[in-house]
Amino acid sequence: MNEPTSGARILPRVLGAIILASAALATPQLAAAQAWPNRPITLIAPNPAGGGFDTVARVLADRMRPLLGQAVIVENRTGAGTRVGTQAAAKAAPDGYTLMIGALSNMALNPGLYANLPYDPIKDFRLVGIAVTWSYTLVARKDLPQNSLKEVIAFAKANPDKLTYASAGNGSGQHVAMAATEKLSGVKLTHVPYRGAQDAYQDILGGRVDLFFDISSTAKAQVEGGLVKALAVSSKERQPFHPDVPSVYETGAPLDMESWFGLFAAAGTPEPILEKLRAAMAEVMASRDVQELFAKTGGVVSKLSSAQAEEKVRSDIERWTRLLQEIGLKGE
Q: Based on the number of CB atoms within 10 Å of its own CB, is 32 exposed (0-12), middle (13-18) or buried (19 or more)?
């Protein structure tokens, strides 16, 4: 019988060494994933307190804490229209100890607004899940002479740039909603950016700015309190929480915009950690009190699977990048 060649004898040894080396590298990662979490978790909300990012972050943080056995600490990392906080989350160690609330604005709108975005929403993140969706509600200062969006459009066409509108910052969802309505309606308004929704409301309530297209979760309380008046919603259909308010679509401007908010981790986060996060998030979102809490603010809890949610994020990035290019809107 012929002896095996030297190459044939060496090959099994090389393969065995590769397998052992791979196992040695994987063992620490697997052990870390199994021990996770053994210290507090930071949850970045890339906008100031009081808006949709912050609301979702605090609901998830409070209710995931007992399920994970560790504190989940909300950090409002603000600046540059959500880009500062989102970039920080993208560059965080992929160990499950830094998470982020991602939404339509920072994950799907920013790629179409900024040519040199300091993060890639697909390559730099892993989606845990989408929690809730909201429409935007166009509100006006309560003493604005115009009482409907149609009246606002008619006045704006006759008086270009005279009406002002607030946003939570350049490139924010509030900015895009109003700028898209402005462009699709063929009018010119004056944009006044703020560092968050609360700052914008101070000037709306003080009568120093005319309009604000805010996420419905925070706008609803202001409308119901009689502090502002609702003129329209951004979704194609009217919203159940104020059915008498028409959609922008009904005015003839083809806007169809709803914001989703979800939980994201850095790309490279081990799959066992993502599975633990998904299980905890699913349990939180299935609870009746959370569903009722979001319903009171006009939110609809997402029922999308992980695969469906990932597809929605991808399709929204493609759709809004194309639409923003057609509208010609760029972030500053």
A: middle
